[in-house]
């Protein structure tokens, strides 16, 4: 469902109720033509601000090997198992992965993520292997700016599913979902410049390196790190 509010009714009011009656000679016809053309052009460009809570879009979709869906109550046990396997690999890059949460805290986190998904403030997505039905990792659309239709893609995968192209496949699917269902104008992937696995995913997924933010933020070990910023932009990259 398109979440942009159409301007057709507003355009029609302006054209037929306000401008048309004045188009009675060559000069005014020309002026009216220019105004009408401008209004029609803007009606196709301007997207009025909307209330994110009113947006309706699918909570799940699939790629060739993955079932991707929003978090649901009860996912905590699966997330906890995946984190138990992955925590050592995530710790250098993810501030939230410094300690392994309990299964109960994982369930609380899942339910909080569910609420944020319904609020449209953050769209976390769980990645499931279709064949084994295992939760293989997490991704999602974060740092959302609904007015600009800008989203940041994050991701992690458990070690037993690494090196098989699952995250690249997930990013491709999420990118298509964001463009098709959310009318995304800009999609971003940010990563530590030392996280070569993450940057390779961005590059394989066709994201363009826009720049490197030098000494952008502090790493987990307290040292300053550089952040690589990759993006895809409507009208240029898709």
Automatic annotation (TrEMBL):
SUPFAM superfamilies tied to this protein: Acyl-CoA N-acyltransferases (Nat)
Top-level taxon: Bacteria
The keyword Disulfide bond is annotated on this UniProt entry: no
UniProtKB keywords: Membrane, Transferase, Transmembrane, Transmembrane helix
Coiled-coil regions, chain positions: none
Gene3D superfamilies: 3.40.630.30
Lipid metabolism found in the keyword field: no
Transmembrane segments: 18-39
Domain N-acetyltransferase: residue ranges: 78-229
Molecular function as annotated in GO: protein N-terminal-serine acetyltransferase activity; protein-N-terminal-alanine acetyltransferase activity
Record-level GO cellular component terms: cytoplasm
One Pfam family recorded for the sequence: Acetyltransf_3
Protein name, UniProt field: GNAT family N-acetyltransferase
Lineage: Bacteria, Bacillati, Bacillota, Bacilli, Bacillales
């Amino acid at each position: 469902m398109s979440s942009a509010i159409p301007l057709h009714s507003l355009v029609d009011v302006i054209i037929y109720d306000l401008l048309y009656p004045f188009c009675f000679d060559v000069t005014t016809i020309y002026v009216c033509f220019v105004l009408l053309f401008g209004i029609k052009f803007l009606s196709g460009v301007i997207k009025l601000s909307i209330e994110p809570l009113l947006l309706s879009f699918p909570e799940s979709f699939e790629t060739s090997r993955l079932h991707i869906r929003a978090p649901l109550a009860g996912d905590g046990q699966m997330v906890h198992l995946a984190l138990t396997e992955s925590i050592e690999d995530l710790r250098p890059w993810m501030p939230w992965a410094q300690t392994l949460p309990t299964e109960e805290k994982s369930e609380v986190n899942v339910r909080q993520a569910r609420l944020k998904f319904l609020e449209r403030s953050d769209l976390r997505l769980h990645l499931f292997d279709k064949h084994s039905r295992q939760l293989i990792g997490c991704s999602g659309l974060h740092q959302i700016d609904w007015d600009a239709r800008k989203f940041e893609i994050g991701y992690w995968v458990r070690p037993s599913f690494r090196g098989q192209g699952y995250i690249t496949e997930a990013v491709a699917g999420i990118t298509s979902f964001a463009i098709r269902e959310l009318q995304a104008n800009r999609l971003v992937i940010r990563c530590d410049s030392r996280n070569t696995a993450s940057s390779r995913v961005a590059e394989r997924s066709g994201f363009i390196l826009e720049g490197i933010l030098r000494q952008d933020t502090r790493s987990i070990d307290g040292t300053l790190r550089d952040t690589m910023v990759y993006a895809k932009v409507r009208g240029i990259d898709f």
